[in-house]
Amino acid sequence: MKSTILLTTTVTLFAANAGAFPGKMDQLMGPVYAEAYKQKFKRQIDATAPQGTGALPLTPPPFDAAAQYISNQGAHAFVAPGATDQRGECPGLNAMANHNYLPHDGYATIQQFYNATQEVFGMSPDLSLFLATYGAVVDGPLTSWSIAGGPHIGIGGSHNNYESDSSPLKGDLNQYGSNSQLIMEQFNELYNMQPNASTANYNLEVLRTFRGQRLQESIDKNPYFAYLPFSGTGVSQAAFTFIYRFMANKSAEYPEGILNKDVLKSFMSIYGEEDNLTWVPGNERIPDNWYKRNPSDEYSIPYFVADILYFSETQPEISIPGCNKGTVDSFSPIDIAALTNGAYTAEQAAASPFCFAAEFALAELPLVTGLPLATLTSAIAPLTSILSGQNCQAIGSVNQSALTVCPGFSLYGGPTGPVAPGAVQS
User: Fold this and answer.
1) Other CB atoms within 10 A of residue 90 CB
2) Is residue 5 exposed (0-12), middle (13-18) or buried (19+ Cβ within 10 Å)?
3) Any idea what DSSP says for residue 332?
4) Collapsing DSSP states into helix, strand and coil, what is residue 254?
5) CA distance 98 to 108
6) In this predicted model, what pLDDT tens digit does every residue of 306-361 receive, in sequence order?
7) What average pLDDT does the chain have?
8) Sign of CA dihedral 198, 278, 70, 168
9) Which end of the chain offers a freer environment for a tag, N or C, measured as fewer CB atoms within 10 Å?
10) Rounded to the nearest 10 degrees, how much is the dihedral formed by the CA atoms of 74, 77, 83, 87?
11) Judging by beta carbons within 10 Å of its beta carbon (0-12, 13-18, 19+), is residue 114 exposed, middle or buried?
């Protein structure tokens, strides 16, 4: 009874004072903050797991070396990209191309992305099919796409429809003029969060703190920062959760996985001595003696949703889209009810982050792609099928005018672009 009273009192007080939090959020955030703190108090877990206190799974499946080992030898030995090979924003995709799990030129079909992400990282069929299909429809010719490229060719040109600002390690497009350049200051910020090499583990607890820091940095430094419903509140979380979920090395001692400094550097293409680290573009590697997720514990859409909610317990601001208005620190949320014509409220979007993001993306596809509905219907059939299994509330139409207040809003952009006046570079 005492804990129930404490929970109710804490949530009520926090909600009442949400409007007092400094400038970057307005009254739309009140219910979201309250729900995040409610969930935080409900999930009292004392044991500290390698994946982070309170993160799933509380009991991981046993380690199976034969099923989890990923070769970086023979046919899958590392081969650096050549002059015509494409490498882009995603370190995992780059690593798979460098080891011939994806075509070495960096251009693949939906089926090839689907197969490789399951084989190498243990991504589940629902999530791999969704991401591979969306990339082909929005950033390719419906059946394939590039892991780099430009607009309508690959994710390099997908700014604000797939690729997003506030990346863990890559620069904001209008802060640095590129969305594919790794910023060493950002890498060092993450790297130094685990100073002891013997115990370092870049788990979800570390990454959710880093996620909040990166969001605030984009607000503080990028006048055109746009944090939009699909690319921001949805896909950008994956850029953080995937680091631990897919890169952590599994073992009998740590079946959940440990992501230490050497493994992190290998996947992020960081080379050199500790006091002289350097980014080598496109040279991401699968480490030696590296083991993926157990096949019985593939990373699915429900798993991803649980991780977003885990992040939002301590970083509730990640749940609401918004933008800077042309100057740094001018961020304010976008009215979700107005944006979705009443289909979602801010509270509903925060409680169902994948549904909100994915349904928004589907509703916006005719505008984004410029393709007739008849063409899109068959191409996105896998997406609609996956969403039907998630029991998501559909968004009939999008009020695009709600996004025009964001000077950084665009349907396509990258891999290069103008630096916004007033941008602050680290």
Assistant:
1) 21
2) exposed
3) E
4) coil
5) 13
6) 999 999 999 999 998 999 999 999 999 999 999 999 999 999 999 999 999 999 99
7) 89
8) positive
9) N
10) 130
11) buried
Structural tokens at position 81: 């990209």
Q: Residue 269: helix, strand or coil by DSSP?
A: coil
| Cβ–Cβ < 8 Å for 26, 313 | no
Picking from 163, 211, 175, the residue whose alpha carbon sits closest to that of residue 317 is: 211
Instruction: Print burial letters for 139-168: b (CB count within 10 Å at least 16), e (below 16).
Output: bbebebbbbbbbbebbbbbbbbbbbbbbbb
Contacts of 305 by beta carbon, 8 Å cutoff, 6+ apart = 352, 353, 354
Tens digit of each residue's pLDDT (9 = 90 or more) over 71-129: 999 999 999 999 999 999 999 999 999 999 999 999 999 999 999 999 999 999 999 99
Separation CA 63–CA 80 (nearest Å): 31
Q: Hey, what amino acid is at 184?
A: M
CB-based contact 331:219 (threshold 8 Å): yes
Residue 333's H or E segment, with its range, is strand 332-333
**pTM of the prediction?**
0.88
Gap between the Cα atoms of 387 and 301, Å rounded: 10
Written as six digits, the tokens of 291 are: 């083991």
Identify the CA nearest to 235 among candidates 410, 106, 364, 356. Answer: 356
Q: What CA dihedral angle connects 286, 246, 260 and 76, to 10 degrees?
A: -10
Banded pLDDT at 411 (limits 50, 70, 90): confident
Instruction: Give tens-digit pLDDT for 166-188.
Output: 999 999 999 999 999 999 999 99
Is residue 140 within 8 Å of 155, Cβ to Cβ? Answer: no
**pLDDT tens digits, one per residue of 252-310:** 999 999 999 999 999 999 999 998 999 999 999 999 999 999 999 999 999 999 999 99
For residue 26, the model assigns a pLDDT of 43
Q: Would you list the DSSP string of 208-234?
A: HHHHHHHHHHHHHH-TT-EE-TTIIII
